[in-house]
From TrEMBL:
Gene3D superfamilies: 3.30.300.30, N-terminal domain of ligase-like. Residues 67-453 form the AMP-dependent synthetase/ligase domain. This is Acetate--CoA ligase. The gene is acsA. GO terms for molecular function: acetate-CoA ligase activity; AMP binding; ATP binding. Pfam families: ACAS_N, AMP-binding, AMP-binding_C. It is an enzyme of class 6 (ligase). Its EC number is 6.2.1.1. The keyword ATP-binding applies. Keywords: Acetylation, ATP-binding, Ligase, Nucleotide-binding. Residues 515-593 form the AMP-binding enzyme C-terminal domain. One of its GO terms (biological process) is acetyl-CoA biosynthetic process from acetate. Belongs to the ATP-dependent AMP-binding enzyme family.
Amino acid sequence: MSDRIHTLSGYFYEYQKSVTEPENFWARIADSFHWKKRWDKVVKWNFEEPNVQWFVNAKLNITENIFEKNLFAYGDRTAIIWEPSEPGEDSRSISYQELYEQVCQFANVLLSKGIQKGDRVIIYMPMIPEAAVAMLACARIGAIHSIVFAGFSATALADRINDCQAKAILTTDGNFRGNKKIAVKALVDEALEKSSVESVIVYKRTGQDIQMQEGRDFWWHEVTEGVSTSNKAETMDSEDPLFILYTSGSTGKPKGVVHTTGGYMVYTKYSFENVFQYSPGDVYWCTADIGWITGHSYIVYGPLLAGATTLMFEGVPTYPDPGRFWAVIDKHQVNQFYTAPTAIRALQAYGTEPLEPYKLDSLKVLGSVGEPINEEAWKWYYTHVGKSHCPIVDTWWQTETGGILVSPIAGITPTKPAFATLPLPGIQLAILDPEGNELTGNSVEGNLCVKFPWPSMIRTTWGDHERCKQTYFSTYKGMYFTGDGVKRDHDGYYRILGRVDDVINVSGHRMGTAEVENAINEHPLVIESAVVGYPHEIKGQGIYAYVICDTTNRTEDNLISEIKDMVAKIIGPIAKPDKLQIVPGLPKTRSGKIMRRILRKVAEGDTSNLGDTSTLLDPEVVNQIIAGKK
Ligand code: 6R9
């Protein structure tokens, strides 16, 4: 039985069911999975401790739901298409049967290294199919994987290894980035100086020189050689941890978000199939890195549970030229394409010329994730990439939510530029004012919370349950607090306004930084912008805008006043930036998120302690911004 929603009325019907009879609703969805033992109760929960359990006492293995359950039906279907960084190198195509054998084989390797159920394994690998094999092999034996984005520094890696007391690391010799080879193993060596790690398994990708420590380091191709490709899956409790994923919060130290097995499985598959309206045979491509939650839920687990063909891309959007995404879409006849606004804006800056050689006629659905997508980028994406016939699913969710919570259902529920629109079935949202009152009805704005559990939600933060409670469950009693601001418009559609710590209060008027940015971005010469608040004597907070724009043939001063006037015109004089600085770049994390904390410090004139900048893509840009500040 398929749980696909096919009509708008079907969506409303399912949504209603999920609210009035949540246990029956989720039991029906979960019944299509393979459980070694069925649950005693669908959900037990309280948001005070918090303690949330889904499919209580059920037993399963998530990899059996990807493989054993389906191999008979579609073992030779392509599971993963891999597109390498270098366009001249061959792409790879791995069937479900082949992937299954590789996962079982590698699971046996992990067992032979003494890794057991519950042990933590760090995966520090670039975008190659073996990274997915590594994840699934951990899941097969019940080891808890924690993927660290392969672009993170040795220090960041060491912090994570130590926090979760990892027993093994799975990595590569190096990584390709454009025409450069990047060291990966060397960073592992640096991170391992003081650590609990007993074994390191290294997949040879670039062939660069590395050091191998006798007794600790092993080559992937050597340890897998001759190893059996059959493996009996470990029996997992529904609430056994599946993985830890570290994410940064508003405070310094990253926290290890813990996801468990049964609920995560049910929700990622359900949300994947519905949001993207995936049909068997489609080629689906999500450009995220597996080091982020999007890569976990919507490159690996969701798509593979749904029997999809998922494309993994090793490269970057601008190598060897800014037409690469479009070339890959045509080459593999991609049907669903899921990327981030930052990538869209970066490509938009090259104009439409790089798109011209490509047809893009296989595309059916476009997706966006990671940050609010501004109207201008939305329209560009819709018109030039989707050729005005592909719905855009603007998917709002978080590392902590495990899966998409608010999004259009492609082609079925309406879209609206810059709106994530409506909650998926099972997701009961609430908008709260700062005093904790729920704002009901439409045309309201406040803090986004969720008042009922959903299967893929965060269970704890690794080693520090109190932190989980404080961060997400203490601001508003009985609610999961997302940290995002939201507006529900007159039609009842949700628009995410950005983190509430990014809200600027100018003379008592609250304004989302994203709202001001959208207005700035309307200027034809603006490429990207970031807005922060800074202390202002009279207004409380002033607006400081950092803007990347095309200054050819224009004087800066003239352009600055033109952009400011434009914002005043679009939102109102209250939104006019007090300060506007033209900058060569913005400080971004490797996942493309702007580090506003740094921009706020610079705006405040406090550059003595910028905090941790190790996760920045290009730390140098911070110095350029400081130098350019008037
Ligand atoms: C999946 C992911 C979560 C934060 C989230 C919000 C922002 C993500 C968004 C969006 C507006 C969207 N965010 N998707 N804002 N519209 N469609 O990105 O997880 O890295 O944990 O970030 O990203 O602010 O709170 P994560």
